[in-house]
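Design request, tokens follow.
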């Protein structure tokens, strides 16, 4: 087991014909604790896979340092880093059986045959290859996508490495199989207690699997925190919008004064439409006092908005544009003034229809406010 430290890490690809270089990772600083399951998440091109590949030794480090178990590994060959990597495309040898694929790395390292067989059997037992059917003698072409990914996991498990690295291992699987494999990898971590670094673009995977999450954008680390902290206290607008499904509602407005109390008034660009808003509670008012007369961005997640059929104190009028029925719940898409919001409601509100006027009431306890210039959360 090992702690991994990423210290002032950069990856810069050289420019072409005098053009400036492309910065793929910029000044990344974070640590993965011993036995921790850390997920790197972000949109395509954010630098998460490049960071993982630098840990694995598959990409050269431009600047900075990586430490595993207290040892600087910048110049250590990949085979000597005591890591095991699970790739997106499985990377199985088609002419080898499941057992031979799992054992191949150990054979290259000269492990005794008896030890290899023991490790393969132990990994096969963990991954369910022995019951109800013994899959060890099958070749990859006779396996499903989920079974092939389990073989790739088994090949990593038999190594018993200090650190497991996962590069979007579930992206080739269908939705049902992704859920099953998500649970399987989580159980594997609980059983093995190894340090694991997992890369994905899927924020649902990140939220359900991680001990902590690193959110990246354009090569820059935006926030490192536990899943619920990212959800309830995002550092900036990007994190707020990237984490959560449906995405957070973000409404531009200003802090005004109404009968001696502070009020958020949304900014509408639609002529003839009265701007909506609400009086801030004492906790929010104290935090937003310096923003009196200034613009802010209000964020509220769809599940923290209630729907009322009549005008209610603390609420404002919205017009329903679309209702998405999801079974036990529905997503109500509304227009408030000139801005769109989504409300996540239970099945009791399935009677609502397009064009209907409703009152939406935000739970101020979960309201977030952001500075429009810096895009940072106002605390």
């Amino acid at each position: 087991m090992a702690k991994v430290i990423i210290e002032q890490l950069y990856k810069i690809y050289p420019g072409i014909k005098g053009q400036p270089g492309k910065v793929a990772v910029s000044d990344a600083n974070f640590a993965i604790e011993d036995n921790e399951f850390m997920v790197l998440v972000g949109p395509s091109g954010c630098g998460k896979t490049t960071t993982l590949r630098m840990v694995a030794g598959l990409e050269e480090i431009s600047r900075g340092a990586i430490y595993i178990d207290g040892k600087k590994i910048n110049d250590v060959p990949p085979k000597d880093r005591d890591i095991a990597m699970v790739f997106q495309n499985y990377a199985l040898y088609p002419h080898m059986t499941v057992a031979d694929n799992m054992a191949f790395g150990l054979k290259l390292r000269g492990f005794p045959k008896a030890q290899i067989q023991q490790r393969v059997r132990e990994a096969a037992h963990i991954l369910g290859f022995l019951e109800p059917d013994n899959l060890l003698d099958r070749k990859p072409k006779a396996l499903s996508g989920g079974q092939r990914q389990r073989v790739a996991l088994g090949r990593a498990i038999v190594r018993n490495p200090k650190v497991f690295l996962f590069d979007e291992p579930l992206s080739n699987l269908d939705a049902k199989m992704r859920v099953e494999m998500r649970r399987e990898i989580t159980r594997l971590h609980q059983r093995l207690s190894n340090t694991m670094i997992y890369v994905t673009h899927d924020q649902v995977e990140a939220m359900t699997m991680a001990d902590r999450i690193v959110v990246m954008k354009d090569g820059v680390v935006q926030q490192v925190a536990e899943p619920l902290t990212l959800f309830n206290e995002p550092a900036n607008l990007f994190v707020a919008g990237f984490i959560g499904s449906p995405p957070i509602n973000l409404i531009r407005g200003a802090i005004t004064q109404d009968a001696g109390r502070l009020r958020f008034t949304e900014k509408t660009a639609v002529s003839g439409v009265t701007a909506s808003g609400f009086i801030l509670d004492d906790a929010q008012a104290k935090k937003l006092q310096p923003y009196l007369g200034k613009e802010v961005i209000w964020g509220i997640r769809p599940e923290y908005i209630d729907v009322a059929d009549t005008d209610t104190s603390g609420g404002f009028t919205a017009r329903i544009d679309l209702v998405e029925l999801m079974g036990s719940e529905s997503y109500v898409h509304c227009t408030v003034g000139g801005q769109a919001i989504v409300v996540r409601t239970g099945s009791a509100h399935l009677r609502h229809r397009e064009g209907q006027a409703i009152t939406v009431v935000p739970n101020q306890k979960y309201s977030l406010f952001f500075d429009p210039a810096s895009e940072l959360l106002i605390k």
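Comment from the thread starter after seeing the answer: thanks! The two ends are 37 Å apart (CA to CA).
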